[in-house]
Each structure stands twice: as C-alpha cells, then as structure tokens.
Amino acid sequence: MSKATSIRLSDDLREKIDIYAKNEHRSISSEIEELIRIGFAAKENPDLPLEFINDLLQAKTEKESDLAKPFKI
Fold first, then answer.
1. Element housing 5 (H / E)
2. For an engineered disulfide with 14, which of 9, 19, 54, 73 has Cβ 3.0 to 4.6 Å away?
3. pTM score
C-alpha cells in the first residue's frame, strides 16, 4: 500500500513534471514515481544509455501486465 508523502518542488520542476504527466496520461504522482524509477535505474547502471533503460522498464511493465508476447526467430 502506498504511503502519502509531502515534498516541496520548485515551480519550474513542477511545471516540467506536469507537462510530462499530461503527455503520458498519468497523474503527477504516477509521473514522479516513473521518473524516480528511471533515475534509480540510470544511477545503478551508468554505462547504459537512457533510452535502453526506458525500453527495459517498459518491457518489464509489459511482462508484469501479461502484455508481453514471446519472441519467435
């Protein structure tokens, strides 16, 4: 279960997050969670390009949602 946490954000950062959230059809909270997930993954894997990390996280989400399909060669 999620726990509510209050954080302070600069107006500029809040506006950027709001734009990203609208583009991705997410709530601000969901967008902040996504950005934190990406940030943690990038920090833990500094040798990987950001786009590769995004693709990995998207694939993981698809698999967890049973949307992934087996790859056939």
1. none
2. 9
3. 0.76
CA 13/CA 66 separation, integer angstroms: 34
Q: Is residue 56 within 8 Å of 41, Cβ to Cβ?
A: yes
**What totals of helices (H) and strands (E) does the chain contain, helices first?**
3, 0
| Residue 71: predicted pLDDT | 79
The SS3 of residue 73 is: coil
CA distance 20 to 28: 9
Structure tokens at 42: 């990038």
Q: Looking at residue 37, what DSSP letter applies? A: H
**Average pLDDT of the residues in 8-32:** 95
State whether the Cα torsion 40-45-50-53 is positive or negative.
negative
Q: Give a three-class secondary structure readout of 48-62.
A: CCHHHHHHHHHHHHH
pLDDT over threshold 80, residue 1 = no
